[in-house]
Structure formats: structure tokens, C-alpha cells
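Pilot study result, target chain (73 residues):
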Amino acid sequence: MIKKTDVQRLTDEISRLMAALEDVNFECQKLEIINANLDFQLKSVNRELKQNIAVLEALEEENKRLKKELGKR
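Predicted structure:
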């Protein structure tokens, strides 16, 4: 037979676990927001990197052209 103190102890433990679960859910939501922000920043940095690569490639082509032109003189 289950004693009243056992039931109370189980009820207290369930309450503690439910509170812990709420804390975990809250932390999970915070991490999802942080992850979304980091994803946005990563995409933004990748766009900027692609633009910088395009500029560098254009400068490289311009340098090759100028070297050729200087070699003709």
C-alpha cells in the first residue's frame, strides 16, 4: 500500500521535474533565437565574402591586363 508521504514525495518530485522542464524549454527557445540570429549573420557574411571575392577577381583581371599593356611598351 502506498503511504501518504510517498504520494506527497512523488507529487513534489513531479512538480520539481515540471519546473525543470519549463526551464529547459525556455533555454531551448533562447538557443533557437540565438541560432536564428547566427544563421542570419552567417548568410550576411557569406554575401559580403562573395562580393569581396568578385571585386578581387576583377582586380586580378585588371592587373593582368595592365601587366600585358606594360609589357608591350
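One observation from the pilot: The CA atoms of residues 10 and 59 lie 72 Å apart. A full batch analysis is planned for the follow-on phase.
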